[in-house]
Specification:
Blueprint lengths: L8 H12 L2 H25 L5 H16 L2 H16 L5 H26 L3 H9 L4 H31 L11 H12 L2 H28 L6
Helix pairs in contact: 1-8, 1-9, 2-5, 2-7, 3-5, 4-5, 5-7, 6-7, 7-9, 8-9
Length: 223
Amino acid sequence: MESQFQFDWQAAINAIPFLLEGIPYTLMISFGGLLIGFVLGIFFGLLSINKLWFLKWPATAYIEIFRGTPILVQVLFIFYGLPDLIGTSINPFTAGIAAIALNSGAYISEVVRGGVQSIDKGQNEAGLSLGLSRTQTFWSIIWPQAFRRMVPPLGNQAIVSIKDTSLFSVIGVGELVRQGQIYIATTFQAFEVYFMVALMYLAITFSLSLILRFVERRGLVSV
């Protein structure tokens, strides 16, 4: 039996203004969460390579828990489960940022750990021989080199986190997918609308990829 389906370009175009309203939420949740996640990643990443067990173990536990559970489960727990514990409701936007922050923070922790440990130990010895303290050696010599090596995986994590926001429609966050669902409920043109949603996500992530490639070509990244 032949399909009678024909792509309605006009319907796809008509959906664009409504879908665009979800992009600010997508970007604010993803980049707001990533900013907090970067801070968490540095903190727990450095703790995870600490020789003191009472610092290392909690960091390792955080990393394994949030890397080992789906982000969808995490955001559902934050939005629906956590209010039972704290006795007050949580805004969907806040829950989305918290989920991105905690999830990306766990992955960034591993990026930080790997970046720092990839630097030759001779760099640390060189700093100490110059009369620098261990703290000064780390932040002046080790960290700048390690951070340049972290840029590509950090960029990849940013792309993943942007796409992860599509899951937050389940808690009513007005991001791209949620806007698409609302529009489809009134027009019943799912193929065209989701096609445009996919194109918008692709435009965002591809733009970020181009920026990362530009950074690499400028020699700001060490491999």
